[in-house]
Design goal:
Residues 6-194 form the Tetrapyrrole methylase domain. InterPro entries: 4pyrrol_Mease (IPR000878), 4pyrrol_Methylase_sf (IPR035996), 4pyrrole_Mease_sub1 (IPR014777), 4pyrrole_Mease_sub2 (IPR014776), CbiE (IPR012818), Cobalamin_biosynth_MTase (IPR050714). Pathway: Cofactor biosynthesis; adenosylcobalamin biosynthesis. Pfam families: TP_methylase (PF00590). The protein is α/β, with parallel strands linked by helices and 210 residues long. The protein folds into 2 domains: 7-106, Cobalt-precorrin-4 Transmethylase, domain 1 (3-Layer(aba) Sandwich), CATH 3.40.1010.10; 109-209, Methyltransferase, Cobalt-precorrin-4 Transmethylase, Domain 2. It is built from 8 helices and 10 strands. A 5-stranded parallel β-sheet has the order 3-2-4-1-5, with helices on both faces. A 5-stranded mixed β-sheet has the order 6-7-10-8-9. It starts with 6 loop residues before the first strand and ends with a strand. The structure holds S-adenosylmethionine.
Length: 210
């Protein structure tokens, strides 16, 4: 497929500009049309750029991108890495891969594992952000380690209950990592049983290791 103009999907990392790759920074600065969450636009957009917020109306955002693409490149910022639960999925459904350039970013999961000095090569990486993970990835087996994206519905307390129901020991070690890379970053360690009664940490990465 011929693409005169391109959609450049930029992973902006966990949020702080400190964790933005130089190529991502240059691409965002050079953008004429910039699409992203309100928080990303507040952090990275400049006054001369045309912006579009990614809100709940994903079809509307895709329509906007398609309209702009007829005459110019469009830069789309996504949090973390585009390859891990991002708007890249919706973009790939509407646009051919040949029209997309993807610039990777540091995932919130990578930073969470770094913060707790754990390797993630042997971990299952799961999202419960807006979804429920399949039972087989939640079931405990000895030596199992998981990194889980959380949200308001599937918050750490709820997820702890789900993991306990899937055979995880009450003593399993949990790290709750929120606002990673920001000044108000918090990393709290607890057991799985204790996590049942911890409130908050809704948009966080939960690392669990038996
Ligand atoms: C739609 S997913 C995006 C994941 C992203 N593509 C990535 O690679 O990190 C949003 C979820 O990522 C996690 N997340 C993103 N940024 C975070 C941060 N700075 N600190 C902690 N968790 C974060 C939270 O679980 C949030 O609910």
């Amino acid at each position: 497929m011929e693409c005169t103009y391109r959609i450049i999907v930029v992973g902006i990392g966990p949020g702080s500009p400190d964790y933005l790759l130089p190529i991502a920074s240059r691409t965002i600065a050079a953008a004429t049309i910039l699409v992203g969450s309100q928080r990303a636009l507040d952090t990275f957009a400049s006054i001369n750029q045309v912006t579009r917020v990614i809100d709940k109306d994903i079809t509307g955002v895709l329509d906007f991108i398609e309209q702009q693409l007829a005459s110019q490149d469009v830069v789309v910022m996504v949090s973390g890495d585009p390859g891990f639960y991002s708007m890249l999925t919706a973009l790939r459904k509407r646009f051919a891969a040949e029209c997309l350039t993807v610039i990777p970013g540091i995932s919130s999961v990578q930073l969470a594992f770094a913060r707790v000095a754990e390797v993630w090569q042997d971990a299952a990486l799961i999202s419960m952000h807006g979804r429920r993970a399949a039972d087989d990835v939640l079931c405990y087996h000895p030596g199992y380690k998981v990194g889980i994206l959380t949200d308001t519905q599937h918050n750490p307390a709820t997820i702890a209950g789900i993991l306990l129901a899937h055979g995880w020991p009450t003593t399993a070690c949990v790290w709750l990592c929120t606002n990673l890379s920001y000044d108000n970053e918090e990393v709290v360690r607890a057991t799985l049983a204790e996590t049942r009664s911890i409130s908050g940490f809704e948009h966080s990465v939960m690392v669990v290791k038996a």
